[in-house]
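idk why but the lab printer keeps eating my pages so im just putting this in chat instead. protein + zinc ion:
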Amino acid sequence: MKIGKFINILLIFLVIVLTISVISYLVNQDHQIKQANQEIIALQKKNKQLKNNLEKTKKDKQIFISLVNEKLLSIEKLLDVNDTNSVSLNNKLNFISNEALYRRILLENIPSGTPVKYLRITSSFGWRIHPTEDSREFHPGIDLKTNMKTPVLAPADGIVEYAGGVRGYGRLLMIRHNLGFQTFYGHLNKIIVKYGQFVKKGEVIAYTGNSGLSTGPHLHYEIRYLGQLLNPYYFINWNFSNFDFIFKKEQKVKWEGIQQAVKWQMYLFNK
Ligand SMILES: [Zn+2]
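predcted complex ->
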């Protein structure tokens, strides 16, 4: 009888332990399911966010591509490039970047743009009556009226060939450029570069003045090609967008040789 009671108690105890275990197992499972659900929700959220980001990137890319195409069209127009519709985008871009580089090389090595902020042109290139000596003479450059001490900027890359005084010219600066060009700057107030120094296009090289035979502050600007005097007016107005006009306007320059030299250098560089 005692043993029977004991077994009963033991059985009850076992049932209780089993029930507790099952309950705790179920509770644990429930907890894990809840956690998994939360993770799924978080992942879904993340997924949605990624999708949104992707959509936005896609839209941005589309906008970018249409902008590039638009720019490409305007560049083609600027470069006067026709009939490139049948050409692949890659070839087109290659062609355009080559043409742009070619123009840049020419515009940085040959004097282009104005070397000084001027008020007006007081004397053009060619025959004139000399302003101080009252006699007929050939004016070898252009006179650009400026305020006193206006910065003079190099119109092309080059090496300083002369910086000093010369009768008539006053304080004179000469720069030797690539491809056969040379520029002169007369009547300066101050020269800030030295003989033999390399100057980059756009760099300040001097300040305008009234030295030498001069009736007021101005820059006497001269351009020579292989020793020949050129009309600086065309070069002052030469830039990227009217690139071709100089070849027709300035026929004293043997442009073909220059074009060959630059294209050869570009070829060597790309090899
Ligand atoms: Zn002059």
